[in-house]
Amino acid sequence: MSKKAIVIDGNSLIYRVFYATYQQLDYYKKNNLPPANAIRLVASIVLKLLNENQYDYALFALDSHKKTFRTEQFEDYKAGRKPMPEELLSQLEDIKNIVSAIGLNIEAIPGIEADDIIGSYCKIMNDSDVDVTIFTSDRDMLQLVSPKTSVSFFVKGISVRDLYTEQNFCEKFMGLKPCQIPDFKGISGDSSDNLTGVKGIGPKTAVSLLQKYGSLDDIYNHINELNETQAKKFNECKDHAKLCKSLATIRLDVLNNRSINEFLTKNFNVDEFEKIITYYKLDSLRNLLK
C-alpha cells in the first residue's frame, strides 16, 4: 500500500475560517479576550482531517509575507489585496503553534509563496511514490493534480469539499488538463492575482482555443488561424499573456535540498496543545481527539 501525505494550504484556510467566523470577534471584544476564532476553527479542521485518514507525511504551508519573486517580475502582482487584519495577525503565531502540536510540519520561506512550497512538496512525495492530498480553496492548486496528487477543494464553508483527481479533472474543469491551468490564466487572467491575461478574451474562448491548440505558445504558433479580432487581441497582449502564464505557474523546485523524512507526521504534543487551548479556553477541541 502506498504511503499517504497531506498538505494544507495554510493561508487559504486561515483567511477562510477567519471571515467565516468574523462575527465572533464581537464576543471577544465585549469580554476583553484575545481573539481566537481562527485558532479554534483551524485546529478543529486539522484534527478532523487527521481523523478521516492516517497520513505518513504532513505539511501546513504558509506565505512569508515578504516580497516574492513574482512581485519582482510584475510589480502589480496581487496589487490591491488588503493586508492581514490585526485581529487575525494576532492569532497567527498560535495557529502555527497548535497546528505543529497536532503533528503537522510548518513551512514558510522568505520570498516564496505557499503555492510553490506545496508544489515542491508534492514533487518530493510523488518522486517517492507517495500519494498526496492538497486541501485548499485556491484554484491555482488544480494545476498540481497528477496520478499521485489530488486536490480536495473547499466549496461551501469547510465541510463541503470537491475532490479533483487525474481521472475526473477534464470533466470538472471545462475539458482542460491540469497542465493547461497556467495557459488558461495566461489567456483569461486571474483577478485575484491581478493578472489580466489577453484583454477581451474570456474563459469560454480561452478553453476553446486551448482544446484546439493545447497551449498558449501553440496558439501563438497558429496565430494566423485565428479570426482577425482574436489575432489582434493576442498580438497586442503577447508579452503580458506569457508573463501571466509564467506568474501563474507553480514552482516545483523550492524544496530541492530537503529530505522527505523532514516532513514525516510528528507525534502529538499534548503539553503544547493543552497550553494553547487552556489559555484561549478552547476546551471543546478535546472532543476531537482520538
TrEMBL record:
GO terms for biological process: DNA replication, Okazaki fragment processing. Signal peptide: none annotated. Residues 3-266 form the 5'-3' exonuclease domain. The keyword Nuclease applies. InterPro entries: 5-3_exonucl_a-hlix_arch_N, 5-3_exonuclease, 5-3_exonuclease_C_sf, DNA_polI_H3TH, FEN, HhH2, PIN-like_dom_sf. GO terms for molecular function: 5'-3' exonuclease activity; 5'-flap endonuclease activity; DNA binding. The keyword Glycoprotein does not apply. Pfam families: 5_3_exonuc, 5_3_exonuc_N. Keywords: DNA-binding, Exonuclease, Hydrolase, Nuclease. NCBIfam families: PRK14976.1-4. PANTHER family: 5'-3' EXONUCLEASE FAMILY PROTEIN, FLAP ENDONUCLEASE XNI. 5'-3' exonuclease acting preferentially on double-stranded DNA. This is 5'-3' exonuclease. It comes from uncultured Mycoplasmataceae bacterium. The gene is polA.
